Amino acid sequence: MWFVLRDLVFSLAILLLLLGTSCSSSFVKTENKIKSAAFLSPKFELEPGSVIEKYYYDIDFPKGHIAIKSFNAEVVDEAGNPIPLHETYLHHWVVERYYQSKHPTQTRHDGQKIPENSGNVMVRNNGICQGNKNGQYFGLGSETRGTTMDIPDPFGIEIGNPEQVPEGFEEIWMVNIHAIDTRGVEDKLGCTECRCDLYNVTVDEDWSSIRPNYKGGLLCCYDDTHCKLKEGFEGPKRSLYLKYTIKWVDWDDFIVPVKIYMLDVTDTLQLSNYSEGLNSDHDCQVEYQVESCSTDHKEGNGCVHVKRTSLPLKTGGYVIYGVAHQHSGGIGSTLYGQDERIICSSIPSYGKGNEAGNEAGYIVGMSTCYPQPGSIKIIDGETLTLESIYNNTKEHTGVMGLFYLLIAEELPYQHFRHSTRSSFLMDVNNIFLDN
To answer: What is the rounded CA–CA span in Å between residue 124 and residue 426?
Structure first.
């Protein structure tokens, strides 16, 4: 009888491993309850023409070992009403992950950067820019309201794993908010593109001189700067918040983790002699300038600026989600594999009205990619080509060409097989011992 039972258990084990894909997927859908919560950032104040760029540490965030399934945000007033982009332009919001010492040398909640020796260690995404550049877990800009991010089952972004947090530290989160109040300004587009002449600045936030050929961008619209107003315009100061909504599930072995990669079209590579092209020195600049096209091109409607870069991805996997980030004037962005196949193409949509989420002339959404899991694979070390396209009938300053990817190193049946084999066989041994 004991031998019959043993053979039956092993047969069931083999059957479960072979059917891992369907078992794991159906388990996640039925057993994992999605939780959702909306949070508010600390209050920030804006008056016509003013700029805030704040860094708020230890923000409200779901606790525990969980999988993030969705993250969205928008600017609202004290009554919770959404604020349109033509009043307050959301240049960007960025959410980063940190390990904070339980005995920090310095903690700040006043909206300013924390010194590097504060006891906080940034836990950046999986790359691929240098240092902590573009290391965020979540973040968008003006397109926030119209860009979806709902990670399909059984995938999720793993956070809060106690085994990953160093002893003496705890996991915290930071949000960086960059917003520009354009009520009553002379040039709304110029203000949102941070044109230096409109901000009347010659030094950056660190009091370093801005180079003469730098016409606009992040160096000119830092915290507490002001964009030029129409003569005589006055308007009230108001209190605003970043409202961010998170969906998550409790972590279990059936969830397949995804890794976050952020690619930047401004990235250039210095290849190491010893790296074989895989461990290279990246140089992401985050922003760039788009020069206006010639008069001849304008008449022929051929004013298109294309910027490309090619980047090796050391560790590949299966693409689960993709989306680009562009500024006004953007036409779209595409990520290609080394065989020129399209991995993901993300196209902006522009508003046509006045209400929040449909503001005329502003990018109010970016199309996203949700390939069938397993259909698009990036091989280890594959060189990807990122292309960012802008209309350059007019000059654009401080534009961006970022691409956000979620990649799973395993498909559900592979993950299920690996994560359950040891625990299942342990249960089998226990059955044998009990009998």
So the answer is: 35
Q: Which of 102-106, 152-156, 162-166 has the lowest mean pLDDT?
A: 102-106
Contact 413, 21 (CB under 8 A): yes
Contacts of 54 (CB under 8 A, 6+ apart): 42, 44, 111, 112, 176, 177, 223
Pairwise CA distance, residues 28 & 310, whole Å: 37
Contact 321, 149 (CB under 8 A): yes
Q: pLDDT band at 8, cuts 50/70/90?
A: very low
State the total domains in the chain: 1
CA dist 185 and 62 (Å) reads 39
From the CB of residue 30, how many other CB atoms can be counted at a distance below 10 Å? 9
User: Around Cβ 39, how many Cβ atoms within 10 Å?
Assistant: 16
pLDDT at 216 > cutoff 60: yes
Integer Cα distance of 289 and 398 in angstroms: 6
3-state SS assignment for residue 43: coil
CB proximity list for 178: less than 8 A, separation 6 or greater: 51, 52, 53, 90, 91, 92, 93, 221
Q: Is the pLDDT of residue 62 over 60?
A: yes
Does some domain include residue 4? Answer: no
Mention every residue, 6+ apart, whose C-beta is less than 8 A from residue 331.
304, 347, 348, 389, 390, 391
Burial of 159 (0-12, 13-18, 19+ CB in 10 A): buried
Q: Does residue 10 lie within any of the structural domains?
A: no
The verdict on residue 319 lying in a domain is: yes
Instruction: Tell me the residue range of the domain where 58 lies.
Output: 29-415
Characterize 346-369 residue by residue with b for buried, 16 or more Cβ atoms within 10 angstroms of its Cβ, and e for exposed: bbbebbeeeebbbbeebbbbbbbb
> Is position 336 within any domain?
yes
Full DSSP string of 248-310: EEE--TTSEE-EEEEEETT--EE--TTTTTSS-EE---S-EEEPPPPHHHHHTT--EEEEEEE
What's residue 294's pLDDT? Answer: 74
| pTM confidence score | 0.85
Q: How far apart are CA 435 and CA 431, in angstroms?
A: 6
CB 362 within 8 A of CB 353: no
